[in-house]
Amino acid sequence: MLLPAVLAMPLAMSLAFGSTGALESPGSAEVCGRCHRAIHESWKTSTHSQAMESRLFQDVLEMAAADFGPAGRMVCLNCHSPIAAQIGDVGLARKVSWEGVTCDYCHSIRDVSFEGRNPKAILSFGAVKTGPLSDAVSKAHQTAYSAVHTSSALCATCHEYKNSAGFPVLTTYSEWKASRYWKEGKQCQFCHMSKVEGDVVDPRVARSTGAKINLHQMPGSHSLEQLNKAIRAQLNTTREGGQLRVTVDIANETAGHYFPTGSPLRQLVMELRADSAAGQHFAEQRVYARTVADQHGTVLMREHFVFLKAAKLVSDTRLAPGEKRTETFLFQIPKGSQTQVKATFWYYYSPLAKTESQKRVTFLTLNRLAQ
After folding, report:
1. Do residues 339 and 277 touch, judged by C-beta distance below 8 A?
2. Predicted TM-score (pTM) of this structure
């Protein structure tokens, strides 16, 4: 049975506060979710909430610690469990340390400093929670408007990273800043935290006016919707002498950064197949990726080595924001031999993934029948 709002509020407050009458700080997302239910449920489906518990990440964390010791472990925790890194919970004893990029981390940020090698969040854990709303009121904690929460600078603390050798491993923020999206004032939140109708606070705790809230799912590279928005392609076939000529026009239509972005191990792969009625079968690939090497020139293919040992850029075939390319293929298929041509696009996440669904996401398929 639902409780009336007047009765539900004291209950929610008693659940949110500890025995001392004050919020634990930094606090668990589960506590935040008792009042901010819709936001919490949305965040729980995000990769931010799963940043620590991901088995793929746990495998990499274990390898980083084995190969580079505590320093390697901390490089990983700085972004996958930033609260653990901030409070020194390297043993991950506290529940909040297992919550990935959690509520009290983002909403305790006061500003972002770009001094030094990497962007750094200026944090203050306590009773004041920061956010993008200027008129927010809470009986569980104090609130403060934060301009940085409306800015891509908020994301830079984890999505821009140079290692100790000074090599830019993660460049998503600087890619965005060099794009037209920065000039147009379109921040990361425009695509990844769009405004939706929702309750800032559970209606059982306080009456809601149907405010617009930022979507805390923060969809990214695993989202079919985001992938299909970002990449547009067109498949065409023509005859060229005794050959079949296939062109694929591909564009980074909407991503405000290079595609793919993030870890250099991520790839966009296009596979082009041509199967003729006469029994001829052809297949070619185009790979859009950034390849990096250590100081000796050895190409790196393991995530933790990329983050800790990368020193040289070998190649970069990724699609810049707004970039369009035409890929051309020629197959020895004579005229009159009906041919099924198929282009398949997938986003390749990591070679260390144990399952195919973790490793890659197929998001676009184009077909054409050539005579």
Report:
1. yes
2. 0.89
